Amino acid sequence: MKIQNIKGTQDIFGNTAIQYQKIENLLITLAEKYGYSEFRTPILEYKKLFVRENDSSDIVQKQMYCLYDMGKRELALRPEGTPGVMRCVINSNLYKNISRIKAYYLGNFFRYERPKKFSYRQFTQFGIENIGNDNVYCDIETILLGFNILKQLGFKKIVLKINSLGDLESQKKYKNKLKNFFASHINCMCADCKKRFLQNPMRILDCKNEEDKKIIKNAPKITDSLNNNSLLKFQKILDLLKKLKITYVIDYFLVRGLDYYTHIVYEFFVNNEETAVGGGGHYDYLAQEIGEIELTGTGFSFGIERILMSLQKENLILCAKEINIEIIPINTNNFEKCFSVAEKIRKNTNFKTDIIFEKQKIKTLLSKAQKNETDFIIIIGDKEEKNKNITVKNMKTKEEITVSDNEIEKFFDSLYKNMDQK
Ligand code: HAM
């Protein structure tokens, strides 16, 4: 029986793995430049970390992977990173010693979504959380970082959709207005909307049902419910974005898929695509719900799979192909020299260097190397041992160069530098 991988998950290897690494390295480097440091929190958490009181989000309602362990504890595979980071900051008392915590994280997350082009059940997120500083400039700095990440990745068209959900007072007022508006429509809306109407009518705005969208189009806008403080904050952020030349589109119905946001929320889009590559916002009460303390935060996450797909669509492949070298010993008594040559290459270059231990005919090994797109072949036999040299064959140009043993390091050092500059 052939065992398949689980629907919505994928094996990542070869060139795709290299591309993941390139994207992830770029994201980490930039986040560190902005003062963020890495947080690694567990993949497995108590379910109650994510399912907080009155949570109406789809993620919590129907997309969580939940399980019981042997001790009958109710656990969940993390569907997102923000609550885990906040729990860690609270549990470790970090917030008591450091005035502002700037965390980044990279890892796998799990949501039971219908697998489709841009949605997986196991996916990779890179996220940042700026915790402990209730200042619009922190919101701006996180948006700026997100924007610069996409710019550095090479995307030409980046759209930032932004909205404000205001503070709790504004949200309460807005929910009432929405209840009044939807009361006469809700009977003919989808089952999810009926549930959302009772739990949190703001979530109705996130409905993807085409018929419901026609009704939602005429719903009241949140900006009409924002109190003065919330409006001022929103305006200040928009003014600063303009000054920083970050173009944005206000989307009055952007509520985001998670319940903890207050004030600013936003999503990043590239290449005119309909699915966001990343999103985030400000949250004032998550720490209170998790640890009964007052601590605000702001941040975003990018989906690496979505970024990679968008890069491929635009032909913005990040990695030049890696150089592969295969060293083929003719006999077992040539292994020692093969090891020594391989180590010299590994020391002086970033080339992938493999010694071929398989006992097969040279002809077969050469044709396999051709299929594997190997760049250089080095065959080492008794002749090379006796002459104290090696022959490096360029598999693309078929050119062969003989290099004496004491010139090997120098030869590969200059070959590497030459290729690096191309
Ligand atoms: P989110 O919008 O749920 O936000 O997810 C952020 C990004 O993760 C999405 O824009 C998308 O690129 C990627 N993503 C989400 N679900 C999937 C999936 N099923 N398959 C592939 N990619 C996916 C959050 O998770 C918040 N924690 C962001 C945040 C950080 N807010 C404040 N701080």
Care to describe what's here?
The chain is α+β, with helices and mostly antiparallel strands. It folds into three domains: 14-167 and 245-313, BirA Bifunctional Protein, domain 2, CATH 3.30.930; 168-226, no CATH class; 324-421, Rossmann fold (3-Layer(aba) Sandwich). Helices cover 39% and strands 21% of the residues. It is built from 15 helices and 16 strands. The protein has helices at 14-33, 58-62, 82-91, 94-97, 136-153, 168-183, 191-199, 210-216, 228-243, 286-291, 304-313, 335-348, 362-371, 382-387, 408-421; strands at 37-38, 44-46, 65-68, 74-77, 101-110, 122-131, 158-164, 248-250, 264-270, 278-283, 297-303, 324-329, 352-355, 376-380, 389-394, 400-404. The longest helix has 20 residues, at 14-33. The model has no long low-confidence stretch (mean pLDDT 92). The structure holds histidyl-adenosine monophosphate.
Helix content: 25-40%
How would you state the average pLDDT, rounded?
92
Low-confidence stretches: none
| Classification by helices and strands | alpha+beta
In the CATH scheme, the class of the largest domain would be Alpha Beta
Q: How many domains make up the 3D coordinates? A: 3
Q: Which fold does the CATH topology of the largest domain refer to?
A: BirA Bifunctional Protein, domain 2
Largest sheet: 8 strands, mixed
Radius of gyration: 27 Å
Q: Which small molecules are bound?
A: histidyl-adenosine monophosphate
User: What distance lies between the first and last C-alpha atoms, to the nearest angstrom?
Assistant: 47 Å
The CATH homology group name of the largest domain: Bira Bifunctional Protein, Domain 2
Number of helices: 15
What's the total number of strands? 16
Strand portion, in percent?
A: 15-25%
Any guess at the CATH architecture of the largest domain?
A: 2-Layer Sandwich
Overall 3D shape: elongated
User: Main sheet: which strands, in order across?
Assistant: 1-5-6-11-10-9-7-8
